[in-house]
Give the backbone structure.
Amino acid sequence: MNSISPELIFSVLTLIVLFLYWMFNFIVIYHLTRFGIGVQPKKFAAVFLLGAIVLFFISSVLFASLDLNYLKSQLEGVIKNSAFNVSYSK
Amino acid sequence: MKIFSIFTKTADSFEGEENGEKVVLLVRRHPFFIIMRVILFIILIVIPEAVYQTVSPLLYTNGLTGLFFFVYSLWCLFIWSGIFYSLTMYTLDVWIVTDRRIIDSKQHGFFNRTVSELHLNRVQDVSVETKGLIQTFFKFGNVQIQTAGADEKFKFMQVPNPGKVKDEIMRLVAIKL
């Protein structure tokens, strides 16, 4: 039986988080434009969308610049030296 | 361009508006509450910056500076959404006074909304309540409307210039009678 790779789990989790994040943004913008009375809520919606896109772009660039292999090795080192790594001696 | 026309001046139309009905007052809570909340969110944005100032040498020696800034950007995204969630709730929590009725639209969450209305001819008495130092200093308070026949009161909570709101409602009631 093939085991599920950590990369696949990471990708699926990332997709779920992204979906939830943009869904939340859509609901905020929808409420402001659909139910908001007057000009002010529409302006809020526009500022929110612009800010969300800019911040999302910054986060994506920062994520792309991460050295994931280095972080993985660091994480493995932390786990090795922590209480999670239990070894039994005879 | 037509698509941007929603950002320019539009009539204060609302869902369920009757034909020929005119909005006289559109009242929201005093901005004091939303400003306080935004200040709290700004403090939350600054906290990781202060943490960075103290742990930056440690992050640098372990090569984790990039990871820190990535997590910080996610934190900012979260805060940004929080600010606008609060703004959405603030904006949609509204009292509308038209030339026919008073509408109280309360937003408790994204999918939790209460709308109640009161016709002007049922208004019996309007009173204003300003409590405490902050309300007096920033000129906001509650406006209570006593309806005919029922014990329940229609309440505008923490609205700016409650005296003016009361006067306007009384003027409309006088016209209606």
